[in-house]
């Protein structure tokens, strides 16, 4: 699914009108019919539509007409300077008049206390309010009567469904411009709006659905911002099929550097996750004093310790992918080991945890190893790497991740709700995963999965995207029945869920 901004929406509109001669009113009607599908008309009978005077308002007037045509009770409020109504909205208003659908204008010029009271009373007698005050055209702080109307809706709300965006959100940045509708559901058109990715907007957007409104694919491609939400089909298309002539070397030989005294669990989880994700040969390199404990648990994996220099050199040279960092310790030795691995390998290297901690004052070393490093920081690690505060990164996650990836020629996976995966040019947002998974070991499991996926012949960037998706997808399935989902629960499920993704494409 594509992510877009107010600017991309405007570009699409212009291209449809000018290049493809598609009249705006036609796209508006497509938007109206798409929205109707999500207004739960089988459940409810009384609707209120609150429209502005822009095209988002026009969508609302069309929705009111279509609801009426389906036998629903509809009351319409139009807020704003009616003289400034856009041509398409005006057309829809004329049709409403002709159909004798009642509407009330709350004009910016008038004294409106009584009308606000009327709105409040009508909301109380309705089932659903459809919010069409502002869409992607919102451009400044909301004040006066607009703010009053939004407050009345928020204070008296029954169910609120917002069209395209909850009125009050800047669709591009996610900034709340003074006041904003708190929607239960947002029915957005063509793009998942970039602004919805900002954590602070989650309480305003509710559930988001994105609907197509008939914009030709050529135009969408032409104005693509290269930012997407990962879809299940993307993952299915990229999971490799195992054919009957395969050998274990075809499915990725990997080495994982992880663990130290007191942190053997991290090493075990990362290695086990890699084995269960389908790597043919997994070797864990760890400190000698934890090697035996891990060996006894890791039935299908091999282990080596740092004293076995020749073996390690061979492993580094022959691996299809290397995972590095979980539970290794934030110290000089870890940094030396990381540099050794990077200097002597030429496969993709996935770096997490202490592998990232030791990089915090040594970022420049990444630049030497073009296009084959994947870092997987959470917000705290990203803050240490970039020197930017956690709150700044939280508010600008997409841009911070993209900039860092571009600057250092690496793939950045910024963990969190809606994990970001970017190489600086193309960006994917992961929609799977949940808070039941927020516990120790989950990052180690993800490192193992990513390293394994990368080793199996899927393009590196795509492999990372798929691993993150499946990791969260398993968590989502398990969390339906489990209050807490641990890394070991995820690991157990990897083979059967991967099969599910794989079978469905081969049916
Ligand atoms: N291709 C598509 O995606 C289509 C989208 N449609 C819908 O159209 C809106 C965007 O419409 P637009 O007319 O550009 O903007 P708005 O309706 O959001 O409102 C603009 C309107 O409001 C005024 N304004 C802006 N900020 C403020 C403010 N803070 N206070 C008061 N007034 C403000 C501005 O001056 C304009 O008058 C999109 O979201 C979709 O819902 C169409 O359906 C066609 C296809
Ligand atoms: K809206």
UniProtKB/TrEMBL annotation:
YjeF N-terminal domain segment(s): 9-221
UniProt: (6S)-NADPHX binding residues: 55-59, 135-141, 164, 266, 327, 378, 444
Catalysed reactions listed for this entry: (6R)-NADPHX = (6S)-NADPHX; (6S)-NADHX + ADP = AMP + phosphate + NADH + H(+); (6S)-NADPHX + ADP = AMP + phosphate + NADPH + H(+); (6R)-NADHX = (6S)-NADHX
Annotated binding of AMP, by residue: 415-419, 443
Stretches assigned to the YjeF C-terminal domain: 231-501
Keywords, ordered alphabetically: ATP-binding, Isomerase, Lyase, Metal-binding, Multifunctional enzyme, NAD, NADP, Nucleotide-binding, Potassium
Cofactor binding: number and manner: Binds 1 potassium ion per subunit.
A Pfam short name: Carb_kinase
Cofactor(s) the protein needs: K(+); Mg(2+)
InterPro entries, per the entry: CARKD, Nnr, Ribokinase-like, YjeF_N_dom, YjeF_N_dom_sf
UniProt-listed PROSITE patterns: YJEF_C_3 (PS51383), YJEF_N (PS51385)
Known role: Bifunctional enzyme that catalyzes the epimerization of the S- and R-forms of NAD(P)HX and the dehydration of the S-form of NAD(P)HX at the expense of ADP, which is converted to AMP. This allows the repair of both epimers of NAD(P)HX, a damaged form of NAD(P)H that is a result of enzymatic or heat-dependent hydration.
Alphabetized PANTHER family for the sequence: ATP-DEPENDENT (S)-NAD(P)H-HYDRATE DEHYDRATASE (PTHR12592:SF0), ATP-DEPENDENT (S)-NAD(P)H-HYDRATE DEHYDRATASE FAMILY MEMBER (PTHR12592)
Subunit organization: Homotetramer.
Protein name listed in UniProt: Bifunctional NAD(P)H-hydrate repair enzyme
Organism: Terrisporobacter mayombei
């Amino acid at each position: 699914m594509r992510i877009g901004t107010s600017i991309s929406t405007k570009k699409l509109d212009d291209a449809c009108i000018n290049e493809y001669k598609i009249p705006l009113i036609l796209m508006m009607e497509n938007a109206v019919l798409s929205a109707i599908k999500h207004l739960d008309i089988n459940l409810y009978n009384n609707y209120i539509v609150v429209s502005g005077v822009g095209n988002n308002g026009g969508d609302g007037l069309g929705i009111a007409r279509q609801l009426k045509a389906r036998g629903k009770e509809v009351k319409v409020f139009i807020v704003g300077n009616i003289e400034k109504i856009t041509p398409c909205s005006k057309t829809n208003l004329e049709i409403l008049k002709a159909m004798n659908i009642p509407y009330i204008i709350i004009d910016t010029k008038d004294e409106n206390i009584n009308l606000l009271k009327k709105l409040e009373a009508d909301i109380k007698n309705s089932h659903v309010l459809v919010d069409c005050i502002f869409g992607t055209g919102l451009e400044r702080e909301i004040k006066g009567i607009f703010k009053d109307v939004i407050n009345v809706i928020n204070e008296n709300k029954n169910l609120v469904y917002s069209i395209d965006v909850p009125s009050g959100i800047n669709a591009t940045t996610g900034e709340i411009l003074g006041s904003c509708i708190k929607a239960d559901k947002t029915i957005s058109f063509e793009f998942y709006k970039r602004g919805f990715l900002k954590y602070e907007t989650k309480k305003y957007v509710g559930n988001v659905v994105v609907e197509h409104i008939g914009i030709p694919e050529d135009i969408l491609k032409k104005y693509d911002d290269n930012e997407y939400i990962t879809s299940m089909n993307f993952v299915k298309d990229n999971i490799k099929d195992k054919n009957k002539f395969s050998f274990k070397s075809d499915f990725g030989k990997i080495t994982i550097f992880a663990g130290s005294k007191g942190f053997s669990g991290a090493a075990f989880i990362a290695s086990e996750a890699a084995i269960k994700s389908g790597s043919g040969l997994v070797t864990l390199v760890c400190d000698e004093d934890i090697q035996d404990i891990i060996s006894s648990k890791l039935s299908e994996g091999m282990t080596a310790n740092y004293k076995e220099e020749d073996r390690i050199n061979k492993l580094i040279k022959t691996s299809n992918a290397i995972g590095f960092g979980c539970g290794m310790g934030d110290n000089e030795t870890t940094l030396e080991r990381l540099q050794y691995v990077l200097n002597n390998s030429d496969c993709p290297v996935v770096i997490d945890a202490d592998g990232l901690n030791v990089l915090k004052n040594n970022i420049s070393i990444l630049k030497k190893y073009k296009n084959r490093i994947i870092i997987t920081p959470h917000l705290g690690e990203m803050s240490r790497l970039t020197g930017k505060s956690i709150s700044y990164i939280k508010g600008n996650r997409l841009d911070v991740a993209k900039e860092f990836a571009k600057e250092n020629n690496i793939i950045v996976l910024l963990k969190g709700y809606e994990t970001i995966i970017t190489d600086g040019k193309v960006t994917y947002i992961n929609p799977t995963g949940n808070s039941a998974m927020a516990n120790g070991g989950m990052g180690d499991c993800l490192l193992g999965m990513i390293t394994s996926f990368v080793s199996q012949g899927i393009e590196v960037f795509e492999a990372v995207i798929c691993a993150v998706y499946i990791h969260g997808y398993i968590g989502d399935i398990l969390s339906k029945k489990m209050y807490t989902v641990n890394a070991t629960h995820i690991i157990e499920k990897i083979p059967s869920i991967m099969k599910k993704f794989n079978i469905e494409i081969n049916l």
